[in-house]
């Protein structure tokens, strides 16, 4: 499910991926979309979360576009700044991930995990590239803790 990490992870998120490769999707926050035909990026053009959920067609405001990244086993993804604050991120709960639009798909094609869809997967054509999740995925999300109370742990 697409989400934003809370303030405990601010300003940087570091994710170490282990196990099966997956595609992580980044989508601009719904406040950064506007109805088709509405242009500009002033504060008045931004919409609420509820309005964004109801809309069937929208355009992203300038410089905010959805993108995906393939996370290979033993990979480290670090994101901060605009990606941290202005995007939702998530991994689809599916055994097959479409990866045509992944920004690094050409980099991972030599690793043998990217294949062409058989066309039997709902929503994918036979010429789409996919990653099949054969194993479980384990990830470690790291953060910097700015304040630690010494009295929390008493051994």
From TrEMBL:
<dbReference type="GO" id="GO:1905614">
    <property type="term" value="P:negative regulation of developmental vegetative growth"/>
</dbReference>
<protein>
    <recommendedName>
        <fullName>Oxidoreductase</fullName>
    </recommendedName>
</protein>
<keyword id="KW-0408">Iron</keyword>
<dbReference type="InterPro" id="IPR032862">
    <property type="entry name" value="ALKBH6"/>
</dbReference>
<dbReference type="GO" id="GO:1990247">
    <property type="term" value="F:N6-methyladenosine-containing RNA reader activity"/>
</dbReference>
<dbReference type="GO" id="GO:0009408">
    <property type="term" value="P:response to heat"/>
</dbReference>
<dbReference type="GO" id="GO:0009409">
    <property type="term" value="P:response to cold"/>
</dbReference>
<dbReference type="GO" id="GO:1905615">
    <property type="term" value="P:positive regulation of developmental vegetative growth"/>
</dbReference>
<dbReference type="GO" id="GO:0009651">
    <property type="term" value="P:response to salt stress"/>
</dbReference>
<dbReference type="GO" id="GO:0051213">
    <property type="term" value="F:dioxygenase activity"/>
</dbReference>
<dbReference type="GO" id="GO:0009737">
    <property type="term" value="P:response to abscisic acid"/>
</dbReference>
<comment type="similarity">
    <text>Belongs to the alkB family.</text>
</comment>
<dbReference type="GO" id="GO:0005634">
    <property type="term" value="C:nucleus"/>
</dbReference>
<keyword id="KW-0479">Metal-binding</keyword>
<keyword id="KW-0223">Dioxygenase</keyword>
<dbReference type="GO" id="GO:0010187">
    <property type="term" value="P:negative regulation of seed germination"/>
</dbReference>
<keyword id="KW-0560">Oxidoreductase</keyword>
<dbReference type="GO" id="GO:0046872">
    <property type="term" value="F:metal ion binding"/>
</dbReference>
<dbReference type="GO" id="GO:0062153">
    <property type="term" value="F:C5-methylcytidine-containing RNA reader activity"/>
</dbReference>
<dbReference type="GO" id="GO:1902584">
    <property type="term" value="P:positive regulation of response to water deprivation"/>
</dbReference>
């Amino acid at each position: 499910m697409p989400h934003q990490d809370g303030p405990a992870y601010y300003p940087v998120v570091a994710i170490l991926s282990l196990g099966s490769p997956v595609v992580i999707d980044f989508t601009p926050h719904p406040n950064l979309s506007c109805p088709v035909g509405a242009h500009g990026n002033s504060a008045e053009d931004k919409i609420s979360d509820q309005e964004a959920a109801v809309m069937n067609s929208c355009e992203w405001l300038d410089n905010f576009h959805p993108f995906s990244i393939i996370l290979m086993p033993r990979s480290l993804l670090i994101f901060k700044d605009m990606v941290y604050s202005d995007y939702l991120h998530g991994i689809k709960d599916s055994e097959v991930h479409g990866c045509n639009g992944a920004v690094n798909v050409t980099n991972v094609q030599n690793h043998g995990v990217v294949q062409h869809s058989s066309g039997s997967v709902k929503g994918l054509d036979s010429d789409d590239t996919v990653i099949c999740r054969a194993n479980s995925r384990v990830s470690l999300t790291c953060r910097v803790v700015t304040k630690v109370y010494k009295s929390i742990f008493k051994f």
